[in-house]
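Bench log. Compound arrived from synthesis this morning; before running ITC I wanted a structural hypothesis for how magnesium ion sits in the protein. Inputs:
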Amino acid sequence: MSTEPIKVAEIFGENVFNDTVMQERLPKKIYKNLKKTIEEGKELDLETADVIAHEMKEWAIEKGATHYTHWFLPLTGVTAEKHDSFISAPQPSGKVLMSFSGKELIKGEPDASSFPSGGLRATFEARGYTMWDCTSPAFVRQDAAGAILCIPTAFCSYTGEALDQKTPLLRSMEAINGQALRLLKLFGNTTSRKVTPSVGAEQEYFLVDADKFLQRKDLIYTGRTLFGAMPPKGQEMDDHYFGTIRQRIASFMKDVNEELWKVGVTAKTQHNEVAPAQHELAPIYAEANIAVDHNQIIMQTLKRVACQHGMKCLLHEKPFKGVNGSGKHNNWSLTTDDGINMLDPGKTPHENIQFLLVLTCILKAVNRHADLLRESAADPGNDHRLGANEAPPAIISVFLGEQLEDVIEQLISTGEATHSLKGGHLETNVRTLPEFTKDATDRNRTSPFAFTGNKFEFRMVGSRDSVAEANIVLNTIVAEAFAEACEVLEKAEDFQKAVHDLIKEYAIENQRIIFNGDGYSQAWVEEAKRRGLPNIRSMVEAIPALVSDKAVGLFEKFGVFTKAELESRAEISYENYSKAINIEARTMIDMARKQFLPAIIKYTKTLADTVNAVKQAGADANVQEETLSEITVLLKDARAALMELEKVTAEVSEMPDGQEKAQQYYHVVHPAMDALRDPVDQLEMIVDKEAWPMPSYGDLIFEV
Ligand code: ADP
Ligand code: MG
């Protein structure tokens, strides 16, 4: 183990083609052009691109890079990359030159037909393009493959349909930028030129020993355990959360941080999480598209470094039944280029009114599009967390904290329309605002969407999922609410009065979405039902929200998704769900057939032999016999459940792809999986540990 101190300030960003490097290496004019593109979205001409490409290549080669890759986020959920080396055709001398053109930098052509396109491929060409997202800096990644220049890109079809997460994310950032500036202008802001969503994504993960991992086909094929009885001790003692980090884990974290810092990821916070073997890493927030890329880099780095330490990093939302799963908290706020956080309550009444409008617009957006936000966090693994008695519930609500909720309540009850303006009720209400301090509100860990001082924390996203979708939805639904507010306010004769009226109207109309209580309780489920809030318990039930008329209208209005793109996304989601459950079911079948049943059958023979031997010795073999019959009963149950699972999996997998198939996986195959797991888990508690064919939960989570 290396005890070399890490010189953070020196290594931070050393492998990033960042602003300092660009300023140093690019001719002034070229640098200026590129900055224009980055800051104002101006198109990049090929001449400029050629110079940048050349300098980027020279820089990367100095860092040891041999290849470059267009790094992108297709709809498979994991980043994709194809490596091309810098070498060009040999010269007459037999030597090769290292080359990299502007064209190669700004555009790549992976074969789109190998990535999910959900019908877009049938309608349009198979060809796809990756395009440089110059707002997210290129970096050199060092791993076993050597050093590779990674160029963050967006991925589109030949006709421009988005085949990835980045494209709609960038579109949604443009939408919120436009509408937020419009709103700021109404409040007299003439200095801000750009508004960017800021995102900080906290990442939870599990670490297990690699040797044990490799003995479990369920972990290998599906990333989670499909069988496994709870050990005598789980997380009930709360002794892991924020506990001392064990040395093996600490040395892993040290390497992770170092790797992340080198590529410019601001790894900031690390700690043990609630469940044994569970940990968390949080970076400092960044612009949404960078934060999304960085989160992908974090996930890749966790996995890679874990392997180097003889461990495996589990990013699945629910690797172990009975202990907490993992999520990703998406912290979101809106920041102007001159440093104003629009979600900061501020100090003066003037700022407060703007803040209250922003806040009530967000309430309106979340209330109206709760179904879309819920959908943005849907993935097969998250079905085990959301609405399954674990944080957070599948019902979207907003936590404001006592002070803000009080302000909203006052607005609703005393802000009697015109009267209040003259009478100064709102003024009074507003004057209560400067009391806000960042810690004035308590925490509520059970809320899916919580105001935490100067940002919202969306806590539903799955640990394995990209945070892109959640932010696409957030940006767009808030852009819509801003646009609607601006339409009213731009026409208003008395602006102050109009703002007050609007804030009050939004507060009244959307109060059902505010909930400060215990989101885990059954009482909330019933209360939410009374309020008419959607309770969407599963991924298959969440997907239709993507293609509702409401969603199509919203996304088309802001140019974030076309109807065809939304339909393709829904189709891909159904397919992804079906595939995931199919793999899980088949893995269970495989494990039961080839590992559990044979091991248990063998064990019953040992037991039977023992019964005979004990009897022959003239002793009482009652206990042995009873154990044998107990096992035999469960063995029978397990076999029957296995046959049933085989049958339904075969039937459902024959169905044509689409919504119905996914529903069958959820309603038919999933319960059949549970039915098989149950007797096997019971058997694990009775059968001799020596006879059990794989490491138990105890081995996996307490002995890392
Ligand atoms: P909390 O304790 O409220 O969860 P932390 O300070 O630990 O807050 O931050 C959690 C995450 O939120 C970090 O990634 C952090 O960088 C991010 N964050 C902090 N402020 C903001 C903000 N204004 N907008 C977006 N993310 C933020
Ligand atoms: Mg947090």
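What the model suggests: Residues 416-440 have pLDDT under 50 and may be disordered. The first helix runs from residue 8 to 11.
ITC booked for Thursday regardless.
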